[in-house]
Write a structure and sequence with these properties.
The structure is a single chain. By secondary structure, this protein is mainly α. It has two domains: about 1-60; about 75-95 and about 120-215, no CATH class. It is about 50% helix and about 10% strand. It contains eight helices and four strands; from the N terminus they run αααββααααββα. It has a two-stranded antiparallel ribbon with strand order 1-2. A hairpin with a 2-residue loop joins β1 and β2. α1 runs antiparallel to α2, α2 (about 15-50) runs antiparallel to α3 and α5 crosses α7 (about 155-170). The longest helix is centred in the N-terminal third of the chain and has 35 residues, at about 15-50. It starts with a helix and ends with a helix.
């Protein structure tokens, strides 16, 4: 309809018709903007009520200019677009700001008046309960086990997960995947082409978090 009004106003060369077209165009744009934000508010509110923040972050990401990943990064005055080079730049930055804790002043627990912790009993019922409480929309870690699988198959997996937890405590050995993390750079502020303006976020496995909760 807007295009028809424009063609009609232009053909008639009538100032009134052109004014009517501009008014209609302005009101249409205003209504479109209002309708868009009503839609955004509705689906974001629904997402938080359902404790699923993915739609919200998807919307935020869609508003960025660089929605396809990390933009070119600058090093030694040159912009690099290669993914491997960008990963190496980020790695160097994160390593340079990593804090190495001083462990020389940690007091020894041997010979202290505190009694030893009692044996920890991990029950299959408790593990089932914790698996059922997992958020199925959370991302998986290096083990690539989805939270939805752990939640939906909690009853079937509880015995296996319980045995894994018990063996881990008895042998004092963690599965290799539990000691690793997927590092994702998250933009903070400032120049998007500088690695120093990103912070590292670690994505770890879900099962060790469940076991940590039990302990």
């Amino acid at each position: 309809m807007k295009h028809r009004m424009y063609r009609k106003a232009k053909k008639s060369e009538s100032p009134a018709a052109m004014a009517a077209f501009k008014t209609f165009k302005k009101n249409t744009a205003k209504q479109q903007k209002r309708t868009r934000w009503i839609y955004v508010y509705k689906f974001v509110t629904q997402a938080f009520e359902e404790k699923n923040t993915k739609p919200f972050w998807k919307f935020v990401k869609s508003q960025r200019q660089d929605s396809f990943g990390i933009p070119p990064l600058k090093k030694d005055g040159q912009l690099h677009v290669d993914s491997k080079v960008k990963a190496e730049i980020m790695l160097e930055e994160f390593k340079s700001v990593f804090t190495q804790e001083d462990k020389s002043h940690i007091p020894s627990l041997y010979g202290t008046p505190y009694s030893s912790i009692s044996d920890l009993h991990i029950s299959e019922e408790g593990v089932t309960k914790l698996l059922n409480e997992l958020n199925p929309n959370k991302a998986s870690g290096p083990d690539k086990i989805p939270c939805r699988v752990l939640k939906e198959l909690a009853a079937e997996l509880a015995s296996v997960v319980t045995a894994l937890f018990r063996q881990t405590l008895e042998n004092v050995i963690l599965p290799i995947d539990w000691t690793e993390a997927i590092i994702s750079p998250v933009y903070k502020k400032g120049n998007v082409h500088l690695a120093s303006n990103y912070r590292a976020v670690s994505l770890t496995c879900v099962l060790p978090k469940v076991m940590e909760h039990i302990v």
